Amino acid sequence: MGKAGRRKRRQAESQGRRDEIRRGDLREREQARRAARAATKQDLAWFQRQGGGVQTLVVLGSIAAAVGGHFLLWGAVFPALGAAVGRVPVVSTVTGWLFGGGAFLAWGVVAVNHKTATPRTTARLRTVAWVWSAVAVLLVPTGYANDVLLPVDFWAGVYAGAYGMLLSPVALGVVALGWWLLVTKLFKHKGEPSTETIGWICVGYSVLLLVWGSTLLRA
């Protein structure tokens, strides 16, 4: 009986140690899963981390802000700014172009400096580009906007930026087709365009809009 009892105690102790190791492993795995979920949640954008109700309110608020900003921009900002710069044709056109065409220029600067700028500088450039893009969206030439009277040079710049924004998907398709025909097929270059190349394309498109606003609308 003595030997049997000691054997049972040793078995119980051994089983207890195995159970404790198993429970420790389970706790570690659970902690690892929680840490992974927390890291994944932190990697998500602020909007994605919100609940459905908050997301709905944000979307509705954004739509209301966009509509209100459109009327404010065309009804108050553009008439006052156009009157201020309308006497100097070049300044007037460039000022009007900045609202829409400047957004493409801003993204071009972001892309061109993507590899050389510090993370902090890149974050700031992206913030400027996103804000500029939000302003460009407000340029949609609605019926209300078309009825606003502006100096012709200022309107030419705004017109070029507004329609340049609307035609940007078409321009993107033309650039993609041109890249495929000239670079991929003609010069046999493999691979996608670099970030710097995309940036210079954005800069070129922005300058093209400025030229359009400065010349083509004078016919």
The domain tally reads 2
General form: elongated
Query: What is the radius of gyration computed over CA atoms, rounded to a whole number of angstroms?
Result: 30 Å
Assembly type? single chain
Number of strands: 0
Summed up, the helix count is 9
Largest sheet: none
Low-confidence stretches: none
Taking the alpha carbons of the first and last residues, their distance comes to 113 Å
What string, H for helix and E for strand, traces the elements in order? HHHHHHHHH
> Approximately how much helix is present in the residues?
over 70%
% residues in beta strands: under 5%
- Average per-residue pLDDT, rounded, comes to 81
- Classify the secondary structure makeup into a structural class: mainly alpha
Transmembrane segments: 57-82, 94-113, 125-144, 156-182, 198-217
Region (Disordered): 1-28
Keywords: Membrane, Transmembrane, Transmembrane helix
Biased composition (Basic and acidic residues): 11-28
